[in-house]
Amino acid sequence: MSTGVQHLLPCAEPVQLLTEDGTRTDPTSEVRERGYAFPSDEDLLAVWRQMVIGRRFDAQATALTKQGRLAVYPSSRGQDACQVAPVLALQEQDWFFPTYRDSMALISRGLDPVEALTLLRGSWHCGYDPAATRTAPQCTPLATQAPHAAGAGHGMARRGEGGLALCFIGDGGTSEGDFHEGLNFAAVFNAPTVFFVQNNRYAISVPLARQTKAPSLAYKGIGYGIRSEQVDGNDPAAVLAVTRAAYEHARAGRGPFLIEAHTYRLEAHTNADDATRYRQADEVTQWSGRDPIARLRTYLVGTGALTPEREEQVAAEAEEYAADVRERMNREPEVAPLSLFDHVYAEPTPQLREQAAMVAAELEDAHGSEVTA
Amino acid sequence: MSTGVQHLLPCAEPVQLLTEDGTRTDPTSEVRERGYAFPSDEDLLAVWRQMVIGRRFDAQATALTKQGRLAVYPSSRGQDACQVAPVLALQEQDWFFPTYRDSMALISRGLDPVEALTLLRGSWHCGYDPAATRTAPQCTPLATQAPHAAGAGHGMARRGEGGLALCFIGDGGTSEGDFHEGLNFAAVFNAPTVFFVQNNRYAISVPLARQTKAPSLAYKGIGYGIRSEQVDGNDPAAVLAVTRAAYEHARAGRGPFLIEAHTYRLEAHTNADDATRYRQADEVTQWSGRDPIARLRTYLVGTGALTPEREEQVAAEAEEYAADVRERMNREPEVAPLSLFDHVYAEPTPQLREQAAMVAAELEDAHGSEVTA
Amino acid sequence: MSTTTFAQALNRALRDSLAEDDNVLVFGEDVGQLGGVFRITDGLTADFGEERCFDTPLAEAGIAGFAVGLAMQGFRPVIEMQFDAFGYPAFEQVVSHIAKMRNRTQGRLGMPIVIRMPFAGGIGGVEHHCDSSEGYYAHTPGLHVVTPATPADAYSLLREAIASDDPVVFMEPKALYWSKAELELPVTTEPFGRAAVRREGTDVTLVAYGPQVPNALRAAEVAEQEEGWSVEVVDLRTIVPFDDETVAASVRRTGRCVVVSEAQGFGGVGGEVAARVAERCFHSLAAPVLRVTGLDIPYPPPKLEHTHLPGVDRILDTIARLQWDDQPDTTHLAATR
Amino acid sequence: MSTTTFAQALNRALRDSLAEDDNVLVFGEDVGQLGGVFRITDGLTADFGEERCFDTPLAEAGIAGFAVGLAMQGFRPVIEMQFDAFGYPAFEQVVSHIAKMRNRTQGRLGMPIVIRMPFAGGIGGVEHHCDSSEGYYAHTPGLHVVTPATPADAYSLLREAIASDDPVVFMEPKALYWSKAELELPVTTEPFGRAAVRREGTDVTLVAYGPQVPNALRAAEVAEQEEGWSVEVVDLRTIVPFDDETVAASVRRTGRCVVVSEAQGFGGVGGEVAARVAERCFHSLAAPVLRVTGLDIPYPPPKLEHTHLPGVDRILDTIARLQWDDQPDTTHLAATR
Ligand SMILES: Cc1ncc(C[n+]2csc(CCOP(=O)(O)OP(=O)(O)O)c2C)c(N)n1
Ligand SMILES: Cc1ncc(C[n+]2csc(CCOP(=O)(O)OP(=O)(O)O)c2C)c(N)n1
Ligand SMILES: [Mg+2]
Ligand SMILES: [Mg+2]
């Protein structure tokens, strides 16, 4: 094989900077050459803090499904490092392309949690302002966000202001044609777009082995001429280091970057799913032991960066955050039936005006009969 | 990089067994290790003969467009080695999935040339019997045949009779999502399907550089865990050797195989295209010098396998073949308007019966008025 | 007789087809061990083996295209698109290959493929989970489009679909999955192309299909009780082929017609039905054929879906617009025939 | 005044839009140096640079999805699907993203994207090159569907499409690319949502759009000359939004209506138009609204396309079925209103 292609291939093993018990690894020469710099305590502390808040938020959201306050909730517990580190490493000017699973990432980006939960609450589709937050609506049709992110990255490059696009996608999503087309467009147009695959080993019930025979999903990059890496997705330090390197690569005009993060979804696909139908409890137990939050905590306690006071503080912050979410989500949202017609087009068609009038008359009737009843 | 993946990557350079001037190369150790055995004179003679006939046929078809006998014709002149060798190496039980460009391949498979030209003549869509010929209808929507070939390969594996599927596709076609999905399905189901990319450097006017940034299209294989190779597509010996190895691999139950053949389309995209709009004459000249037929001829004359008598014989055979095609294509084909309704469903719906009655009445009217006129 | 849900009827149809014909294969996303997100394929992998009912990678065009290849080898694939809107990635395979293959090959290569597709809404699903996409498929020559509304039809039509030598888009109304009937399986109902008069009436015909059949029946009852209108309800059962005979006969009898369809109205199946009825029954009509359909908007979020869906009230309001007071002279109208 | 072809008018519209607004980008397969397989983008790369008009990899979902991303960044992509049937791979991107984005985001993120699509047949194209797919798009809320039939409209409607803040599926009738008009560009015709009465008449209204407008006009002339029928021809121009006003006013005047559409008829735009007309003009109609459409078959091979296409004869035959002899009492019909 030509050595000219070597740099497009991922490391043979997922990049790891922290062992499962929270000590620094001795990075391989490959890892050192690729410039995955071990992050500072300060940066890791920020990641840890956001993971703690994110996980509390995630638990709160799951609880809200039980109270019927959310139509459905796909938890990302266990994927916390992936949800937090790549997002914290973004700049404000960058665009983020999340999926339905990435609510924790949305709040890590600073979005209002109630706006972030709008889709799953069922009061509207996207509840936040994509332009203001530079965050695309959460994408449900698998992989369709990949060409969007390629186009957005290319658009930012055209504007020349240094922004990049971060595209999240699941392992299952990589099988869709749009993943392929998105990566190829990004490569051909040299777009500053980073594709971040959260390989949580399942697509609902379909295990990774049914999804691909690739040695690792990161080997898909070379087929597009895209620089690729695989990383231990439960190692917050490694995730942070690799995404940062990817962002540098993209911002330097060297084109897109593909990252595969090996991680695990500890909960079922959503609250409506029964994961016991397709996976063994001991697999879950095993992955529970690789908890990214615990791992980073151990490390930071070890360096002295994380003090008991700080821990208490953050725990309180997380509780407060969850309480606020709970409180606000328990209020019934306002949904105006006639708003259904407001944004189908910038200007409603005559046909929609007719239909709006019909609905308005029905509401009037209903209201009238309520009043007389 | 893990050595465990090495076997999935193509050789660094396209496999070549014959130099451009028709002498045997000294194969690299890589080529030897991969078992690409130099074919016998007898086999190469068969390939040479079929290329001569194929090229004559191709010229005849182009001529038929000028006489308005074909609606359109996409020539494969220059790609003759790709059109012939992989097809001759198939067994009868195998299935072949051609595109609109692969008329030469169709006749190499032994299909009746007039049936093969039905699509381009415009008298029906597919003119041959796919089941009897084990040849799918020529596929126009790019790459959509890739999942068909995966399914057919898997289907044959289920039947356990040793058949495989050969799927042709263009360089442009590799950008479509269906290419990705087809390869992935083939890999996951371990289908005996060989994907053969004729990289002729253009997709109509779009040059390869606008299609991909991959070091070579053969690097797409590893992303699916598919064994891959790149080959000099104008070297008939190499094309034959590599496809044979791929077939052996597939028949042995080791799954799909991806081949990229580097070649060139000497004519315009079709007779209706003006290639001077997007490529330089000297590029065409350069590639004309790499003619697969001349190359193989030189070699076979050198070994003594190809005698002047044999050459004359084959030239005469080719002329005869073309004359037959010309003669039969010059007869106006029969097209029965009411046949439009025959095969929309196995049984026409009441709605189609109504419409057929309307058309029948119109034809009657027209016939009536003709008679009275 | 025992109580059978729509979902159970479908599951049983798959089972019986798998048992009867070794060439039947069931595949798609999560249809294996999980039994499908709606559990329609529950237990099939356990009972028939991985070979007969299996999961695929997540790629709908791939699933449809793989089915084409398998059909070429004599198999009868029954594939699932997990939700209607997730069938769109397979659109090209369905429209350009599955629908056209028999025609392209002069009848030499049929495509006995069933595309199962949970469709329509009313279940509180978030975006992309409640589309009504039957209009796209019904407008595509070469496809059968089947929309069962009862557990008996769910069983019988699915058996017929799998036995069919042509492709069938088999649309399962999500909201009816848990609806029940007293039923002994197997059961054979009327074949493709026959609509069913689900309720007889003399004043007006409601034409409905799939998820809106129960609504039409409820509306008919209320109309009878509250307004004294005698309402006939026709369930199309299959959109393609279409049963002009039954529909036209009913409307010629009643003289009035309302078409009920959950999909966005513009350019959909509702318009086709209304146009056909108006064309065929023109001189019998005492009032224009009206439609009650979904609004011409993307399917709304859960908290607003009731505003979108054709409900009993909207059907009643529409029946009320059929110019009952005008008492048009139908005799004279008939004379213009 | 100078002679301008439909294709030239489109090219000029692209040029003028590119010149006016730096955010306009033209891209797709072969639209760059080649100028498109129909030469609609001829010279744009030469004159505006690779940056503004460029080729992409061959992947229609990718093209559409890339346009979504660019639109998010404030660009106004004008993309080409090389032929109608090659738009199908992009179906999901068009239906689930381009059409819905404004709605999903409560109006915060519009999609000012124009999807240019040569459509329909009559040019001797082989399979997949002559589909009429407007019905799929017209049935999708959130899309404008525009079908110009004259060079002036080709120019003006394309300018309006590119200036629109919403997505437009801009369908160009292939058979009309080389049609001509005496015309000075730029020209501004009526806006989206206005149909045009292309020919006045009193006995019957022909409603047509896109490739069938010239056919309808020819049929009208023959009908007048040979049968003495005075035929009005309405050109819809835009299917979405739909001009109920102009269409209904015409039919109320003439009392008869034939809808002409090249697409396969079942479940298509023709049915929608017929249903709307019958609903709105019921009491003015002296005969049922009839349709002349393509047959419900896959588009035929070149040598048989004339059998499929709605031709002048088929339109005349259909007009003849409008019960001229019955002389129905329209006064009485009006009284039932
Ligand atoms: C095009 C499409 N097909 C099917 C679905 C239904 N679906 C929703 S999530 C999901 C699994 C996705 O798995 P993966 O990409 O691994 O992401 P994860 O849920 O594990 O985060 C499926 C099949 C969908 N949303 N879109
Ligand atoms: C889905 C689809 N999009 C576009 C086209 C139009 N088209 C026909 S051939 C062609 C170029 C294909 O190039 P390539 O795959 O390299 O094959 P080649 O023609 O060079 O053999 C294009 C764009 C098509 N047939 N199908
Ligand atoms: Mg996953
Ligand atoms: Mg090519």
Your description of this structure?
The complex is a heterotetramer, with 2 copies of chain A (373 residues) and 2 copies of chain C (337 residues). Chain A is an alpha/beta fold and 373 residues long. Chain A has 2 domains: 3-329, Thiamin diphosphate (ThDP)-binding fold, Pyr/PP domains (Rossmann fold, 3-Layer(aba) Sandwich); 337-367. Helices cover 46% and strands 9% of the residues of chain A. Chain A has helices spanning 29-33, 41-66, 80-88, 103-108, 113-116, 118-121, 130-133, 145-159, 177-188, 208-211, 236-251, 281-288, 292-303, 308-330, 350-372, and strands at 95-97, 165-170, 193-199, 202-203, 206-207, 227-232, 257-262. In chain A, the strands form 2 sheets. Chain A has a 5-stranded parallel β-sheet, with helices on both faces. In chain A, α2 (41-66) crosses α3 and α2 packs antiparallel against α13. The longest helix of chain A has 26 residues, at 41-66. The mean pLDDT of chain A is 96. Chain C has 2 domains: 2-183, Thiamin diphosphate (ThDP)-binding fold, Pyr/PP domains (Rossmann fold), CATH 3.40.50.970; 196-320, Rossmann fold, CATH 3.40.50. Helices cover 36% and strands 20% of the residues of chain C. Chain C has a 7-stranded mixed β-sheet with strand order 3-2-4-5-7-6-12, with helices on both faces. A 5-stranded mixed β-sheet of chain C has the order 9-11-10-13-14, sandwiched between helices. In chain C, α8 (212-227) links the parallel β10 (204-208) and β11. In chain C, α1 (6-20) packs parallel to α7 (151-163) and α8 packs across α12 (312-320). Chain C starts with a strand and ends with a helix. Residues 327-337 of chain C have low confidence and may be disordered. Chains in contact: A-B, A-C, A-D, B-C, B-D, C-D. At the C-D interface, α4, α6 and α10 of C face α4, α6 and α10 of D. One thiamine diphosphate (TPP) sits between chains B (101, 140-142, 170-173, 200, 202-204, 265, 269) and D (29, 58, 60, 82, 86, 89).
